[in-house]
């Protein structure tokens, strides 16, 4: 072959190799670009997922804090309502207790009330002999109604009149002022069996306590 033909064939081979190399390079470049884009999307999606998870976690924390805060406020409101109710009930009871101090001032009414309280206590005890305790200031008044109280009990219970022994110890007196912290009694009586095992506390203060416990739900 002539040198010119050889050179021409070599140039053709070079062009073919170059073209093939360029095509291969383009394929590699495209593949690399696609792989890069896929990996980039994967990274982006992974980061998005992390962000979503973090957001959901923080959102749950916020919701939990809101629930806790609401629960605390609700409890605080309930406590305020209960405190207001308690204050009102105590105020009512205090007012009623002050009124009790005036009951014994009406001699005739109080005398009748004492007899009714004694008869009621006897009917509850149904004992042949009882101990009676009263305030020292009420002693003469109690003595003056014992016979009529025993007779009334005897008629209602269809039993013999009981023996009533007045205790030498007295119930505490009415307070000199309402805020006193010492024991006090606004009036009434306490009766007990001779052995002291059965006690019927029929003082005005005890009856007020029973009344308030019964009415408290309302």
> Tell me about the biggest sheet?
4 strands, mixed
Helical run tally: 4
Question: What distance separates the N and C termini?
Answer: 127 Å
Count all strands and give the number: 4
Q: What portion of residues is helical? A: 55-70%
Overall average pLDDT: 89
Strand content: 5-15%
Which radius of gyration do the C-alpha atoms yield? 50 Å
| Arrangement of strands in the largest sheet | 2-1-3-4
Structural class: alpha+beta
Could you state the oligomeric state of the chains shown? single chain
Q: Name the helix and strand elements from N-terminus to C-terminus, one letter apiece.
A: HHEHEEEH
Give the overall silhouette.
rod-shaped
Stretches where pLDDT falls below 50 for ≥5 residues? none
What does this molecule look like?
The structure is a single chain. This protein is an alpha+beta fold and 218 residues long. Helices cover 68% and strands 9% of the residues. The chain has 4 helices and 4 strands; from the N terminus they run ααβαβββα. The chain has helices at 3-100, 107-125, 139-157, 204-215, and strands spanning 129-133, 163-166, 188-193, 199-203. It has a 4-stranded mixed beta sheet with strand order 2-1-3-4. Helix 1 (3-100) runs antiparallel to helix 4 (204-215) and helix 2 (107-125) crosses helix 3. It is rod-shaped, with a radius of gyration of 50 Å. The N and C termini lie far apart (127 Å). 14% of the residues are buried. Residues 7-61 form a coiled coil. InterPro entries: ATPase_E_C, ATPase_V1_Esu. Belongs to the V-ATPase E subunit family. This is V-type ATPase subunit E.
């Amino acid at each position: 072959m002539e040198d010119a033909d050889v050179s021409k064939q070599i140039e053709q081979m070079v062009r073919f190799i170059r073209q093939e190399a360029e095509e291969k390079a383009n394929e590699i470049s495209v593949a690399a670009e696609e792989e890069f884009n896929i990996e980039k999307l994967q990274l982006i999606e992974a980061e998005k997922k992390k962000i979503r998870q973090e957001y959901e976690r923080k959102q749950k924390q916020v919701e939990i804090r809101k629930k806790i805060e609401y629960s605390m406020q609700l409890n605080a409101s309930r406590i305020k309502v209960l405190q207001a109710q308690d204050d009102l009930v105590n105020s009512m009871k205090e007012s009623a207790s002050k009124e009790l101090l005036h009951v014994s001032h009406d001699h005739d009414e109080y005398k009748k009330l004492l007899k009714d309280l004694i008869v009621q206590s006897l009917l509850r005890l149904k004992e042949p002999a009882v101990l009676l305790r009263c305030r020292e200031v009420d002693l003469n008044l109690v003595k003056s109604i014992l016979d009529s109280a025993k007779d009334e009990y005897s008629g209602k219970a269809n039993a013999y009149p009981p023996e009533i022994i007045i205790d030498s110890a007295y119930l505490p007196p009415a307070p000199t002022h309402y805020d006193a912290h010492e024991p006090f009694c606004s009036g009434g009586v306490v009766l007990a069996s001779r052995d002291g095992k059965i006690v019927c506390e029929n003082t005005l203060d005890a009856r007020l306590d029973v009344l308030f416990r019964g009415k408290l739900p309302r």
